[in-house]
Amino acid sequence: MGCARRPIDGYDTAYDRYQRSARSRRERHRSQRAQILCRRGPAVLVSLRHGFEQMGPVRTARTLTKLNQQHGFDCPGCAWPETPGHRKLAEFCENGAKAVAEEATTRTVDPGFFARHSVPELLARTDYWLGRQGRLTHPMIIRPGSLHYEPIDWDDAYAVIAEHLRALPDPNEAIFYTSGRTSNEAAFLYQLMIRAFGTNNMPDCSNMCHESSGTALSETIGIGKGSVSVTDLEHADLILIAGQNPGTNHPRMLSVLEKAKARGAKVIAINPLPEAGLLRFKDPQKARGVLGEGVAIADEFLQIRLGGDQALFQGLAKLLLAVEDRAPGTVLDRDFLDRHCAGFEQWATHIRAVDLDTVSTATGLSRSQLEDTAAALVASRATIICWAMGLTQHPHAVATIEDAVALLLMRGMIGTRGAGVCPVRGHSNVQGDRTMGIWEKAPESFLQALDTEFGIRCPRQHGYDAVDAIRAMRDGRASVFMAMGGNFLSATPDTEVTATALRSCALTVQVSTKLNRSHLAHGATGIILPTLGRTDKDIRGGRKQMVSVEDSMSVVHLSRGGLTPASSHLRSEVAIVCELAQHLFGSGHRVPWARFADDYDCIRDAISRVIPGFEDFNTRVRRPDGFVLPHPPRDERRFTTDTGKATFVANDLHWLPVPEGRLILQTLRSHDQYNTTVYGLGDRYRGIKAGRRVLFIHPDDIEASGYAPGDRVDLVSEWTRPDGTVEERRAEDFRLVPYSTPMGNVAAYYPETNPLVPLDHVALKSNTPASKAVTVRLVPRRAPGKRPDGPGIELDPKSA
Ligand SMILES: Nc1nc2c(c(=O)[nH]1)N[C@H]1C(S)=C(S)[C@@H](COP(=O)(O)OP(=O)(O)OC[C@H]3O[C@@H](n4cnc5c(=O)[nH]c(N)nc54)[C@H](O)[C@@H]3O)O[C@H]1N2
Ligand SMILES: Nc1nc2c(c(=O)[nH]1)N[C@H]1C(S)=C(S)[C@@H](COP(=O)(O)OP(=O)(O)OC[C@H]3O[C@@H](n4cnc5c(=O)[nH]c(N)nc54)[C@H](O)[C@@H]3O)O[C@H]1N2
Ligand SMILES: [Mo]
After folding, report:
1. pTM for the whole thing?
2. What's the distance, CA 762 to chain centroid?
3. Does 284 contact ligand 1 (Cβ within 6 A)?
4. pLDDT-derived band of residue 20, with 50, 70 and 90 as boundaries?
5. Is 70 exceeded by the pLDDT of residue 632?
6. Where is the Molybdopterin oxidoreductase domain (predicted)?
7. How far apart are CA 9 and CA 282, in angstroms?
8. Residue 394 CA, ligand 1 centroid: distance in Å
C-alpha cells in the first residue's frame, strides 16, 4: 500500500483513518479497489480524501472505478474528452473526483433541515457551507410570506408550476434556464416542452461561458464548435493556450499536452498569470499530482495584459504577413485562401495598418517576444489554438477569437491533421445541450424538424439569453423562472440586481441536486425539485436507463450511473420534464411524454430523426467510444457560412487600458471549486491556504495604492453608463496578496466578485458578461472586523 506509507501533502490521513477504523473484513475487501486507486499517486489521494469524507470508502471505490469508464458514467467535471480505446483505471483527475464526491455524498438536506433553517438564516451562510450540507432529498415549496421551505408531493408541485405557466398572459413571460450538466435526452425534452409551451426563452450557462466562441466560430467557419480531436493535439507542431488554466479546470488535457510535447510539439501559454499546471506539470494520473517538481508544459510563457489578446493576434498576423512579403510562399496557403476563404485581402490590408507599438502597449509584451512567437508560427506546419474564459469573457471577445481564427486560416490550418481551433468547453455537456436545441435563437431548420416530428408549431421569435432574462425579470416582463440545474443567481453578473429580479417573480423553480444560493432568492412561491445526478442509478420502466453526453470535441457517448440515489424521492431530469409536461399539456398531447419517461431509447430515436448527425443514434452510441458528430470544416473543409467560405473579419482593435488610479479585475476559479460550488477554502496551486476573499495584485500596485501586503480592503467597481454617469458596486473585505500579474491587472475569485460585474457590461455580439474586465478601485473597508470569510455573495438577508 504505497499510498499509506508515503505521506504526501498530508492527504494520506483520511486513508489511514479508514484503515484504522475499517470494521469488517468485508469492508476491507471491498476497499481493495480504492487501494489500487491509491497507488496511482497523490492527486488521486486528494480525490480519495474528498471521496472518503463525503461518501465513505466503499462508495468512493465503487464510484471512482466507474468514472469515465466505458460502462460507467461520464465525469460531471469538465468537457475534456476521454482517451479513446483503452482506458486507464483512473481515467479522471483530482478535480473530477472532487466533482463526483460532491454529487455522490451521503449527506442529505431533508425536510427536517429546512424546518430547522429559515431562508434568511441560510442566506447568512457561506456558499461553502451550503454546498457541504448534502443532497436534496424531497420536493420542497416555499409559499408566499413564509420563511421556510416545506415538503410538497411531486404531483402537487407540478400542478403549481403548470397553473402558474398557464396563467401567464404570454408564454414569453416564462424563462427556462439550463446549466451544462443536463444530459442530451433531458435537454432535448426540456427544449421541446418549452417550445411546445410557446417560447424560446432559454438562457443557458453557455451565455456566460463560450457564447463568444460560438458566435465567432459561426461567423468565421460556419459552425460554433472546435475543429480538433485529441489525436490532432498529439500531432500538432505548435499549440497556443490562451486564457485557460487547464491544471485546475481541465487537468486531463495536460496529459495530452505532455504526449504532444514528447512528439516534439511546442507549447506557448498566453496568460496574465503564471498558472501552475502549465508551468510545472506532472501527469495527474500517474505521478505526484500536477504540482511537485514536474516539468514545464509551456515552452514559452507570454504574460499578457488582461484583454490584450486581440492585439496579440493582430500583431502576430502583421508579422506573418511581413515574412510572406519578404519570402513569398513561406507563410500563406494561397491555394486554401483562393479555394475556401472570403475577405482575405480586405483583412490583410487592415492588419498591415496595425501599429506594433500599440500591440506592445496593449499586450505588455516586448517586440522580441512578438517576433519569437511569430517565428514559431511560421516554423509550425500544424498549429492549434486552445482557449477558454480568458478570451471569451471580455468586451471584445468575439473579435479576439475571430482574429485567432484568421491567424490559422491564413496558413490553411483548419481541417488538416494536427491543426485547428480548440475552444475548451466547461460543463461536461454544455456543448451537447446546445446541439439538442437549448438555444434562444435556434436555426429555422431545427425548429422545422421539431414541428415535423411532433406536429407542433415552435415559436420563431428569438428568446432571452441570460443577461436579457435578468433584464426581463427586473423590468416585470417575465414572472416565472425555471432552472434545469445550475446556480443562476451566483453564476450571473450583478448579483443584487439578479436577486431582486428573481425575487420579483411569481414563481421560481429549481431542479437541483444540491442546495445553493439560487434557492434562497426565490419568487413569491419557490419550488425545489430534487433530481438524480450523473452518478445515480436511474431506473425507469423497470430497467436501468442510460443517458448520453457530447464532449468538447463533438464525441457523443453514453453515461450510466450506478449508485443508489440519496433518497427514494429523487426523479431523473427526463422524468421531471415528462411529468411536468403532462401536467402542463394534459393527456392526449401530441408528444408521447409518458413513453419518453419510461424508455430513453425512444427519446434517442426521436433525436435521430430531428438532429442531423444523430442517425442511428441508439446503435452508434452503444459503441465503446460512442461516435463523432459531423463538423464540415474539420471533415471536408466545407464552410457553412453565409458566403459558403471561411471568412476573414477585419475587426477594429480593442484592448483594456487601465484608467488612472484604477485596476482591471478578472474573476476566476480557484483550484478548489466547481463554478459556484466551493469544495474548499484554499487554492494550493496559487499558494492560498484558507480564505477565498483574496485579491491577487502586483506588489507595486499594492504600494502605489498606499496599502501593504495582507491588508484587507473593499473593492468598488465603476461602470460608466451611456449617459456618462458612473455606477458603483461594492464587494467587501478582500485580502491583498502580492502576485505575479501585470501591473494594473488584478484577479479574484468568482462568485464572490459577481456583485461587482455590471449587468450591462457584456461582450459585443455574444452578450456574454465581461467578467474578466471589470474596472475597480481599492477602498478602505466599510465594516472592519466583520466576518473574515463571510457569505460567498453578500445579499441582504432582510430583503429575502
Ligand atoms: N475544477 C474545475 N474544473 C472546471 C470548472 C471549475 O470551476 N472547476 N469550471 C468548468 C467550466 S464551466 C469552465 S467554462 C472551464 C473554465 O476554465 P478556465 O477558462 O480555465 O477558467 P478560469 O478560472 O475562468 O480561468 C481563466 C484563465 O484565463 C486567464 N485570463 C483571464 N483573462 C485573460 C486575458 O485577457 N487573456 C488571457 N490570455 N488570459 C486571461 C486567467 O488568468 C485564467 O488562467 O472549466 C471547467 N472545468
Ligand atoms: N464572475 C464570473 N462569473 C461566471 C464565470 C466566471 O468566470 N466569472 N463563469 C461562468 C461560466 S463559464 C459558467 S459555465 C457559469 C456556471 O453557471 P451554472 O452552471 O449555473 O453554475 P454551477 O455552479 O455549475 O451550478 C451548480 C449547481 O448545479 C446543480 N447541479 C449539479 N449537478 C446537477 C445535475 O446533474 N442536475 C441538476 N438539475 N442540477 C445539478 C447543483 O444544485 C449545484 O448547486 O458561471 C458563469 N459565471
Ligand atoms: Mo463554463
Report:
1. 0.93
2. 17
3. no
4. very low
5. yes
6. 135-511
7. 15
8. 13
Query: 429 CB under 6 A from ligand 1?
Result: no
Give the separation between CA 3 and CA 40, rounded to whole angstroms.
8
Q: Write phi, then psi, for 493 (nearest 5 degrees).
A: -75, 175
Q: Work out which ligand 1 atom sits closest to the CA atom of 242.
A: 38
Burial class from Cβ neighbours inside 10 Å (0-12, 13-18, 19+) for residue 218 reads middle
CA distances from 154 to 116, 162, 488 (A): 22, 12, 23
Joined grid coordinates for residue 592: 408521447
Given ligand 2 and candidates 181, 438, 570, which is best to mutate, with the most ligand atoms within 8 Å of its CB?
Answer: 181
Name the 3-class secondary structure at 423.
strand
pLDDT at 291 over 80: no
* Ligand 1 nearest-atom number relative to CA 302: 38
Tell me how far apart the 2 most distant CA atoms of the chain are, in Å. 77
CA 62, 66, 71, 72: dihedral to nearest 10 degrees? 100
Domains and CATH numbers, the chain: 108-207+429-534+568-598 (3.40.50.740), 211-423 (3.40.228.10), 659-799 (2.40.40.20)
Q: Is the pLDDT of residue 286 over 50?
A: no
Which residue type is seen at 79? Answer: A
735: confidence class by pLDDT, cuts 50, 70, 90 = very high
Q: Which of 46, 78, 664 to mutate to test the pocket of ligand 1 (most atoms within 8 A of CB)?
A: 78
CA–CA gap between residue 223 and residue 212 (Å, rounded): 13
Element (H, E) at 434: helix 430-435
Whether the CB of 122 sits within 6 Å of ligand 1: no
Residues 6+ apart with CB under 8 A from 348: 321, 648
At residue 767 the predicted structure's pLDDT band, cuts being 50, 70 and 90, is very high
Secondary structure (3-state) at 735:
strand
pLDDT average, residue stretch 255-272: 94
Q: Residue 660, class by beta-carbon neighbours within 10 Å (0-12 exposed, 13-18 middle, 19+ buried)?
A: exposed
Please indicate whether residue 423, judged by its CB atom, sits closer than 6 Å to ligand 1.
Answer: no
Residue 76's pLDDT band (boundaries 50, 70, 90)? confident
Three-state secondary-structure class, residue 255: helix
The residue nearest atom 24 of ligand 1, judged by CA position, is 668
* CB 495 less than 6 A from any atom of ligand 1: no
CA of 386 relative to ligand 1 center, distance in Å: 12
Q: What is the pLDDT of residues 400-450, one digit of tens each?
A: 999 999 999 999 999 999 999 999 999 999 999 999 999 999 999 999 999
Closest ligand 2 atom to 210 CA: 12
